[in-house]
TrEMBL record:
Residues 52-181 form the Ku domain. It comes from Aliibacillus thermotolerans. Homodimer. Interacts with LigD. This is Non-homologous end joining protein Ku. Keywords: DNA damage, DNA recombination, DNA repair, DNA-binding. Residues 253-273 are annotated as: Disordered. The keyword DNA-binding applies. The gene is ku. HAMAP family: Prokaryotic_Ku.
Amino acid sequence: MHTMWKGSIQFGLVNIPIKMHAATEDKDVSFRSLHHKCHTPIKYEKVCPVCEEKVGKDDLVKGYETTNGDFIVLKEEELKELKREVEDRAVEIIDFIHIDEIDPIYFNRSYYLGPNEGGKKAYALLREALLETKKVGLAKIMIRSKEQLAVLRVYNNTLLMETLHYPDEIRNAKDVPNVPEKEKVVKKELDTAKLLIDQLTTPFEPEKYVDEYREKLLALIEAKKEGKEVVSAKKPAKKDNVTDLMEALQASIDKNKKKTTRKKTTAKKKATS
């Protein structure tokens, strides 16, 4: 597993040398833009629209755009000095909290933390303390020129760091248009909806969920690679005979009951055979 950051965890006077690894990976299928005529990958060049010149890396400076369209230019040396003032290569735990106090909207990205040389004992101590207290560490860390808020918790016997959005990065839900303030809910509809939820409630098993689009896309690419003709069976048009909310809920429950009955019948036949 690639090490993307080295530093330490600090809480109180305890210092734990660690290595950080990405806990997730992007599985999206990526494409290159090709010239239709010759299938050559297209290059994207930086060009100044005023000077009409190609711009190299050494010709670029950082600029912060103001509300009136002007720019405040920041020198690379100024940014490096500012970064040095807040970056000490440490995950500093500033508080310990219960994780259920954090709404999931705050979570951003996940990273595995493994002990570096000489850090195994202190690493195991922090891990056990978090498990025993059923708490997580709230920390700050500098990643890619941005100070991140993060939580440290135990996942599968490994310390996991999850970066958090700051409160001012969360958009106000009240700004979402057309959200009803208060709607009168018919009790019969509510009871039926709750029944449907109960029927569809199941233990979370992430392995059974797959990206169907990505699988089909990769199958299409593989078929083209092997020179096969790709055909798709036509699906029958859906019959739209559900006219209101109550009918939709009841239809869903009836459909789910049939599935459950078939599963029980199949299981019973297997048990008696």
